[in-house]
Amino acid sequence: MTAHFYSIWPALQPYLPAQGWIVAFWATIITVVTLRFTVDYLSVRRRWRAQFPEPSLITENAQFETVRGKRLRILHLAHPDGTDVPLFFFLHGVGSRIAVWEKQVERLRKVGNILALDLVGHGESEEVSSWEAYTTESLVQDIIEGIAPYTNYRIVVIAHSYGNCLAIKLFPHIQASVAGMVLIAPGDVTHPPHVTRLLQFPEWIIEIFRMLDRYGGTESTSVRRMVYKTADPELKELQLFWNESSRTSVFRRTMLGMAWVRSDDFRAITCPLLLIPGEFDPIHPVPCSYAIRECVGTKQVRIVVGHQVAHQVMLEKPDFTNTEIMRFVEEECNLIHFTEH
């Protein structure tokens, strides 16, 4: 398509105004690039679904519900013991989805109830054009409404990356129901997300930079910042597909709508906290967790570092993550009467 355009361009120039050809040239380039990325995006989504289908545990049990005018996908797995056992509530980060919690859901559903959702524009939830819908405040309000029917449970919030920010902001609204919080790859007040001027550019320009970021495939910077170099090759492939299928429009709106946690937000936390940073996480390094403990108070915060992992701790070391969550819930949250089903 691009080659054909260049072949006919000289013939078009005489019919354009003296300066108008410059505008027309760049308008055409933008159109071609936009169409190319649209085709690539749809192709990637089809390829992702075919090669890495979501776990049947999620697809067969998740339901779509209308939350504050948006169609969100919500996963609820009820335990036979009902409110006698905890509710594990999962919050993913930017560009992520329920599926990142597959191994945790498989393990923890045996001892408790499960609740998780795809944030607006993420996973299979509806993408809306409103910028306000992607602000931190709006996302928290979505979560409050989504979790409202389950506040009679003893809730253990399990969050990752930006999901930690949402969890901290959520806490005052459901404080009476929260038995504990698990923050995986948490960022403190000194490490808010690095939002550069790049996000102010048109989406097609951001798409180009994202494509360059993925240069190298499974060994690209895009993948390396999420999973460590020694990660399983299949996990690297999965992470690459997740990165490719993440919508730039949603990423841009979510990042620009962020209101990161402040010291006062951390100080308001009164429940036990388990922090699980990744040893080689370039996004939220280990010192962030110790800064959080200093802010909240050393007595109620437990830190366990995941070794030889980057940002996706729960994906790279699922058994380690599950074991630490179970130990925390039993020892710190006073929820010790587990019966596996």
TrEMBL record:
<dbReference type="Pfam" id="PF12146">
    <property type="entry name" value="Hydrolase_4"/>
</dbReference>
<dbReference type="GO" id="GO:0016787">
    <property type="term" value="F:hydrolase activity"/>
</dbReference>
<dbReference type="InterPro" id="IPR050266">
    <property type="entry name" value="AB_hydrolase_sf"/>
</dbReference>
<keyword id="KW-0472">Membrane</keyword>
<feature type="transmembrane region" description="Helical">
    <location>
        <begin position="20"/>
        <end position="39"/>
    </location>
</feature>
<protein>
    <submittedName>
        <fullName>Alpha/Beta hydrolase protein</fullName>
    </submittedName>
</protein>
<dbReference type="InterPro" id="IPR029058">
    <property type="entry name" value="AB_hydrolase_fold"/>
</dbReference>
<keyword id="KW-0378">Hydrolase</keyword>
<dbReference type="InterPro" id="IPR022742">
    <property type="entry name" value="Hydrolase_4"/>
</dbReference>
<keyword id="KW-1133">Transmembrane helix</keyword>
<feature type="domain" description="Serine aminopeptidase S33">
    <location>
        <begin position="88"/>
        <end position="317"/>
    </location>
</feature>
<keyword id="KW-0812">Transmembrane</keyword>
<dbReference type="GO" id="GO:0016020">
    <property type="term" value="C:membrane"/>
</dbReference>
